[in-house]
Structure formats: structure tokens, C-alpha cells
Amino acid sequence: MMDAIQDAWNGLNGWLFEAAVQPALYALGLMAWAEDAFDWMDFFMFGLLQVAIVYAICRPLEAWKPVERWGDRRRVRVDILYTMLARLGILPLIAFIAFSAMESRLAGLVADSGWVPPTLETLVPALREYPLLALLTYIVVMDFGEYWRHRFQHTFGWWWALHSIHHAQTQMTFWTDDRNHVLDDVIGALWFGGLALLIGVPPGQFPLVVIVLRLAESLSHANIRLSFGAVGERLLVSPRFHRLHHGQGRDLANKNFAVLLPIWDWIFGTADFRRDYFPPTGDGSPADAPVHGGWLRQQMVGLRRLGAALTR
Ligand SMILES: [Zn+2]
Ligand SMILES: [Zn+2]
Predict the structure, then answer these.
(1) Which of 81, 187, 294, 311 is deepest in the core (most CB within 10 A)?
(2) 112-139, pLDDT tens digit by residue?
(3) What is the domain extent for residue 135?
(4) How many A from CA of 217 to the centre of ligand 2?
């Protein structure tokens, strides 16, 4: 059964690669990247599958137990566009190509100097024998990195200028996960890819780490009146936990920065485990503010805010 699914998946990807990707690479003179492109198309297709899975899980939950009901879902639609742009893997693809090019050059330099950079697996050799343990360790370390990236987005004025676009959404749904300024996406990809290289996440495990964190993030933004209970709330980020971070009102945005594991908020004193609290979301900007316009307008607002923060 699993073999049949695997075969069908490989068959579909192989066909798509030969029909569309390979001719494009050939035309662009990028055939040297063919192998990487094939690996990444697999991931790209998995991204599509991911959107389908997230939709299949979150959409019925949102219909069943929504925090808010809206007649007009216009503001949700722009977040769907954000998701399509981000999840089709354009940014991760650019980051991956840039990094693997840089890495091979760095690897050459390092090999010449005779120095072996430490990775988690060289520090803890046991990880090599237990791939599942290694994967879990990478997820925990990457999640720790994401906690601090998110915290810095709220700490530095210039970074908040970009991240404020994410927080402006008043109709928050599982699509809101990807509502980010493009520049913020680029910085995020560099941050994530840089940390992954630093700790030596193997390329085969990298997509899995991305998928686990992204699934957690989508669910945490969903418009669902759902908390994981006294214990569960402390183990995994729930829709209640992250909604509080998006809540309108003083200081809520300085709480609950975690993406997957609330333990970081717990350790660093930013956790708010208040039960059954589902505040309205957004930054309080009026309904006709440009930040509620289309994708392009929101991107321009982000750039303007960035310029103001940098020249202040
Ligand atoms: Zn935030
Ligand atoms: Zn968020």
C-alpha cells in the first residue's frame, strides 16, 4: 500500500519534471542544477500537498467552532494569496540555491584549511545512529531559533515595521500564517537556512523540519475556539496560545512568541497561559487603512514603515 503511494508520487513527480522543469532549465542554461531542481520539485509538490492537508484539517475545524464569523471574507482572500506565493516554495528555493552555492564554496575553503566545522552530529555522534532522535533535535533547535527571530521582530523598530503587516489582520485564519512582508520572508529564510547550515541539518531532513514547523504555525493561526488543556497548552502551541499574541490591546503582542513549543516562552518569561481567552485580533487600524488593501498596497505600507523606522 505504502509502496503504491510512493510509486505514484514518484511517477507524478518524474512526469512533471520531464514535461515542465527540465525543458525550462535547459532553456535557461541551468541544467547543472537539474538534480537539485528535481529534489526541490519533490518538496514543492509536498508543499502543495501540505496546503491540501492543512486545508482539510483546519477548514472543517474553523467551520465547526469558529471564534468569529464574518459575512464578508475579503480580508481572508489576501492571506490566501500570501500563502500561495510563500508555500509554492519560491523563497525557500532561492535561499536553498544561494546557500548550497555558498556552502560548497565555503566547504572548499574549509577543506583547504583542514578545519572541520562542528555540527550537532559531530558534537553528539549518537544522533547519527538514531535518525528520528536527530530529526526531533533539529526541530527543537530550529524552533528555538524561530522563537528568537519572532521576538526580535517585535524588539527592533525596523523589523517590527515589516512584521506589523502580519499583525494587521483582523480576520485571522490558518492562511494568516504566511501573511508576511516579502522582505521579512527573505530575512526569515536566511535566518532559518543559516541556522540549519550552522547545526548541519542534512538536506534530506530539512524539508521535514520545515513541514512540521509550518503545520504547527498554520494551525496556531486558525480561527478555531480551541485550546489544548492545562498540560497540552504547555507542550504545543495552540490556536488559543497564538491568538493571544495577535490580540488587540496593550502588551498582548509581547506574549507567546513561540511557533511550536511554548517552553521557550515559559523559560524566557513571555508566556501567557490564560485559559479560554480569545481576543479580537489586529493592530486597531481603521477598516479603510491601506494595510487592509490588496497585497501590493500592504507591501508598500511595509516599505514605508521600514523607511520611517530607519530614518527616525
Ligand atoms: Zn508577532
Ligand atoms: Zn502570527
Answers:
(1) 187
(2) 777 666 788 888 888 888 888 999 999 9
(3) 39-311
(4) 8
